[in-house]
Write a structure and sequence with these properties.
single chain, alpha/beta, TIM Barrel, 2 domains, six-stranded parallel β-sheet, four-stranded mixed β-sheet, about 45% helix, globular
């Protein structure tokens, strides 16, 4: 756990308790609209007041549910696991759901299946990404005459060694042979069969509550399916100040938290001990343009407010990311990414969504920004680690300073161990060779360097070593051009 979180800088203990008091009042006095009869009945059975589809949750019921939320859990991938939770560093996951791609040549295009595969390879070869996820949901190249839900999941599995995040699960658009609830469960069962585990967390997913204070029927089918199949859920709020949330940041955080916690409570009433992730991607809206602004400083402030509350409730929190409003990989994009990543990276967050590549207020993914964002994450990981202040470090440093004395220098002999431990030597993405005449042309533009990294990663990528049975299973759902040759 990070020793001095940014949340401690922005929020006192009294501030967090004030936020909590607001959440309690909204849950007990205003309530949350839940569009699912089975869920409403479960709330009733456990003593919650339910009127006209609105659930009112008291402090006692909330506290009872919070007691069983696990602080940590493990996600199972093809050949590795990832630890997620309050006692671990943030797990970074990639962008997801963007309909457009910014290509290396500067052109924009609809995200297609080739883009999915390219990004899956980038994610799989990334040293900062620990989980993979669907880059886009409804893409050209998937056969529209059949359900695309399992095809998307099969693609994700084929190209990933890492645990997977299934962004939206089943919808009325990608699953037509039954109800959304059936589609959710079939998709999870497909993942369990592929991995060969029925008792592990092999796929996690999330969807958004409706702001203000509602959970729609489709989202409820999604949540119910994951709860019943015993797989982790991410409960996401994505509100806009002064539009779908109050004008104040306090109001935004409190309203979002109440809606999120309603599903946290339901999950624990139905399946005590099920891992849940408290997720916010809410931000301010610029009323001059009626536009959600994901690169604004208020996004980071709202994120920090939710981290403080989730830590107070002892729920793993999934927030922030390299988000922004820019639609070119320029200075604006870099600043926005850093601001969005800094809040969770320098706090106690369990997971960071949209870790690399997202632009244009959720509408755009960039290949080159993906690679640049990875380097930003490495910088922030280094900041998060701090530096060692110990008697051992003190004595060694003072000994060296005494030996060299005034006007001397420390260059000589082998590079000391403490130098190697304390300093991050940046990758070739960022230029640290100085603006010297003989390096300016050699280094080129950061976009050129990003393209070189991309090409090397594509060349180095190797498919997971799946069994014949796994290949056969994936082939039942993979788009024709991506099937295994058997």
């Amino acid at each position: 756990m990070i020793r001095n979180s940014l949340t401690d800088v922005f929020f006192t203990k009294d501030d967090v308790e004030n936020l909590h008091e607001g959440v309690l009042r909204v849950l007990s006095e205003v309530g949350v609209k839940i569009e699912n009869d089975e869920a409403l009945e479960i709330f009733k059975q456990h003593g919650a007041r339910v009127e006209d589809g609105t659930v009112y949750i008291g402090e006692a019921l909330l506290n009872k549910a919070l007691e069983t939320v696990p602080a940590n859990f493990e996600l199972q991938g093809f050949d590795r696991t990832v630890q997620v939770g309050l006692d671990h560093d943030p797990v970074v996951i990639p962008t997801n759901g963007t309909p457009l791609v910014l290509n290396f040549d500067g052109s924009y295009s609809d995200t297609n299946t080739d883009d999915l595969v390219n990004f899956y390879k980038l994610i799989d070869t990334s040293d900062v990404m620990q989980v993979t996820s669907e880059i886009a949901v409804d893409v050209p190249g998937l056969d529209k005459t059949k359900d695309s839900l399992l095809a998307q999941t099969a693609l994700l599995m084929k190209y990933s060694h890492k645990p997977i995040y299934n962004i939206l699960g089943a919808t009325i658009h990608n699953y037509k042979k039954g109800s959304v609830a059936q589609g959710v469960r079939e998709n999870i069962q497909f993942a369990k069969k592929y991995y060969g585990y029925d008792d592990k967390y092999v796929i996690y997913s999330g969807t958004c509550v409706i702001s203000p204070l509602g959970v729609g029927w489709e989202a409820m089918d999604h949540f119910m399916g994951f709860i019943k199949e015993n797989q982790p859920i991410s409960i996401t709020a994505c509100s806009m100040t002064n539009l779908t949330a109050p004008g104040s940041l306090y109001g935004s955080v409190v309203e979002d938290a109440a809606a999120i916690l309603s599903i946290v409570v339901l999950s624990q009433l139905m399946n005590p001990g099920l891992p849940v992730l408290y997720t916010s991607l809410s931000s301010m809206s610029d009323m001059r343009y009626v536009q959600l602004c994901m690169g604004a400083p208020e996004f980071a402030l709202i994120t920090l407010g939710h981290i403080a509350l989730a830590n107070f409730y002892k729920i793993p929190v999934r927030v922030g990311g390299a988000l922004g409003d820019a639609f070119k990989t320029d200075y604006q994009a870099g600043v926005e990414s850093f601001v969005g990543l800094m809040a969770p990276m320098l706090s106690q967050a369990a997971m960071i969504p949209h870790g690399c590549g997202t632009m244009g207020s959720f509408n755009l993914t960039s290949y080159e920004k993906f690679i640049m964002d990875e380097e930003t994450i490495r910088y922030l990981m280094r900041l998060r680690r701090g530096f060692e202040v110990s008697d051992k470090r003190k004595e060694k440093a003072l000994k060296d300073i005494t030996k060299v004395g005034p006007r001397g220098n420390f260059l000589g002999g082998r590079t000391p161990k403490e130098y190697r431990e304390d300093n991050y030597l940046a990758s070739e993405v960022f230029n640290r060779k100085g603006c010297k005449e003989n390096t300016r042309e050699e280094q080129g533009d950061i976009r050129d360097r990003a393209k070189k990294v991309y090409d090397a990663r594509m060349e180095a990528y190797e498919l997971p070593d799946t069994t014949l049975e796994q290949k056969k299973l994936l082939n039942t759902e993979l788009p024709e051009q991506y099937k295994f040759d058997l």
